[in-house]
Each structure stands twice: as C-alpha cells, then as structure tokens.
Amino acid sequence: RHIEDLVGGTGYHSVDTGRVGRLQPARAMSYADMAVLFRTVDQIRPVAAAFEARGIPLQMVSRRHTLETKGIARLLSLAKLALGAGSYGDLAASARSLTPGLNRKLIGLFRSWGLASRMGVSQGLACAARFPVPGLSRRQQVTLVEFTGALKEVSQTVGGMKSAGEKILYLSRLPKLAEHFADPLSRDALERLLLLVAGMDDRPSGFWGALTLQVDTDTFHPRAEKVALMTMHASKGLEFPLVFIAGCEEGLIPFRRREETPAEGEEERRLFYVAMTRAKERLFLTWSRRRKIFGKAEERRPSPYISDIEQRLIKEESERGRRRRKGTDQLQLF
C-alpha cells in the first residue's frame, strides 16, 4: 500500500479506490528508490508474488532466486551439455528440453552404463550413437540417438556465437525451455542471469567458474526501475531513499532456530542495525500479529529490538480499522 502511495499508484484504479494519497513524500519517489529487506531468503518469494499481483515491478536480489529457479537451472544444465562441460546430473535436469521421450528410466540406464564404462556424458552419448547400450530397448536406443543429434545441432549453433549472453539467450528461446519463462518472475530471473553473464569468459571453465563465485549483490541491477527485494545480508554496502524491513517479529528478528548464544544475539542486533541504516530518508518496520509457520498459524510479537529505538522517532500504524468491508463498492460516476 505504501509503495503504491509513494509512486502515485500503479494505475487509475489505485486512485479511484483511495489506495493512494495518504502519504506525502518530500519529493517524487520511483520504484528504484525503494528496497524491501528480509531476514531469510525464503521470505522473498511470497512478497514478490504479491507485488506481481498488484502490478509493482520488482527485482529479487538473490543468487538462489536467479540460478536455482526451475527454468534457469534447466537452462544452465543444457548450456553445460551444449558446451561439452555437462554431467549426468545436467543430462537428467535438461534432457526433456530437447527430447521429451528421454525419461528418467532411460537416463538412469544410460548413466549406469556410462559410469560402469568410466565415460563422461559426451563420450557416452558419442558411443551410444554408434553402438547399442546394454539394457536399452530398441525404442529407447532410438530416443537416445535422437537426443544426441539434437544436442549436436544445438552445440554447433552456440559454438558459433561469440558471447556467453548470446548463447544463454538462444537456448532460453528453444520451445521447451521458453515455456519456463512465460511468467514475469521467471522472465525477471532470466534478465538477471543475462546481466550476470554479460562480459563473462565464454569458455566453459571460465564461465561456470565465474557463475559459481557469484553472490547475491551481483544480481542487483541499480538502474532497473524496480523495487529491490533482498535479504539483510545482501543489503550491506547498498543504500536506498526508502527501505522496508519486513517481518520485524520475535523469532525472525532476531532469527532463532536453536538455543542462542550471547555472541549470536549481538550479531543479530548488528545485522538489524545494518538493515536500518540502509535507509537514507524513510524507514518502515513491519510485523504481522499472526503468521503461518510451517502450515500452522501462530500469534506473533514485535521484535524486541524495536523497543531499543527512541519512541520519539517512531510513528505507529496499523492495518486494523483501515481494512475495507468485504464486497466491492460501486464507484460514483457523477
């Protein structure tokens, strides 16, 4: 609600329904001026989905949400195979992107034979194209040969491309892979991947080595007109005019999974301080009175760290009383 208010709404509907106009910032705000910080990476995706539903552009500043999403993981596995650097795991992850009939059972039989013969994927596929693989039916053998031919064609195509970005973009447009990038969040992950690989060494060893060394902040695009969603750890060194810290609740801030030592408690306090000082102009601390934890609804209390802030600096707001009654109001035209 505050984000919509500060940018003047995401559309005419925001104005018509009264969702904007309550806050009066000293200057015009843009989406790039804002960041939402979280204590854990698992908190990011539900908020991202809510932003998407409200039409708020966002970028998830997270290596995990860039490289480990389903479509990106398959894309990178296929890229490894196409560049001759893939493993049997990459084959299992991406094979159906080229040949739908290459199922888990077939891949398992091929993998067992290849490892027993002390062959890598590339060598094993080359041999399977010439000689029958023990244990495979005729139909399975044909499917494996079809995959080898399709992979060879793709390898030749990407081999003629100059940059890693060109290769990744080409592979992402293959029909079976393109399906994974139909929604905005997946397309955003692909965009961040292309930004990551821009200028990278396109040789397999240099390319994969560089990707392995990437950290969360490497996925941040400062010029993107989007709200940045990131963990408190990832925010170190960055600043934004307006910052929201989500989930300021006991159990999350400070984060507790086991018995806490005094040293860990002080580290959590320092991390919270770092998160707060990312804000240059305005800071919002949010918490929920009730939250589902592992499928079970729990009553929540504000983080004890909030009580350390001078009361004169705090302006409390609550969604209670602000919620509209259920049902849709008819807007008056005249």
Topology summary:
Layout: H1 2-6, H2 12-16, E1 34-38, H3 44-54, E2 58-61, H4 63-67, H5 70-82, H6 88-94, H7 104-116, H8 121-128, H9 138-159, H10 164-172, H11 175-178, H12 184-197, H13 204-212, E3 227-231, E4 240-245, H14 262-276, E5 279-285, E6 290-293, E7 296-299
Parallel strand pairs: 1-3, 1-4, 2-3, 4-5
Antiparallel strand pairs: 6-7
Tell me what you see in this structure.
The protein is an alpha/beta fold and 334 residues long. The protein has two domains: 2-57 and 225-313, Rossmann fold, CATH 3.40.50.300; 70-211, PCRA, domain 4 (Orthogonal Bundle), CATH 1.10.486. It has 14 helices and seven strands. It has helices at residues 2-6, 12-16, 44-54, 63-67, 70-82, 88-94, 104-116, 121-128, 138-159, 164-172, 175-178, 184-197, 204-212, 262-276; strands spanning 34-38, 58-61, 227-231, 240-245, 279-285, 290-293, 296-299. The longest helix has 22 residues, at 138-159. The protein is elongated, with a radius of gyration of 25 Å. The model is unreliable at 11-17 and 324-334 (pLDDT under 50).
- Compressed to H and E, one letter per element, the order equals HHEHEHHHHHHHHHHEEHEEE
CATH topology of the largest domain: Rossmann fold
The CATH homologous superfamily of the largest domain = P-loop containing nucleotide triphosphate hydrolases
The number of helices is 14
- Any idea of the CATH class of the largest domain? Alpha Beta
State the total count of DSSP E strands.
7
**Biggest beta sheet summary:** 5 strands, parallel
Question: Helix/strand-derived class?
Answer: alpha/beta
Summed over residues and divided by their number, the pLDDT gives a mean of 82
State the distance separating the first and last CA atoms.
Answer: 27 Å
Domain count, please report it: 2
User: What is the CATH architecture annotation of the largest domain?
Assistant: 3-Layer(aba) Sandwich
Low-confidence stretches: 11-17, 324-334
Described by the principal axes of the CA atoms, the overall outline is elongated
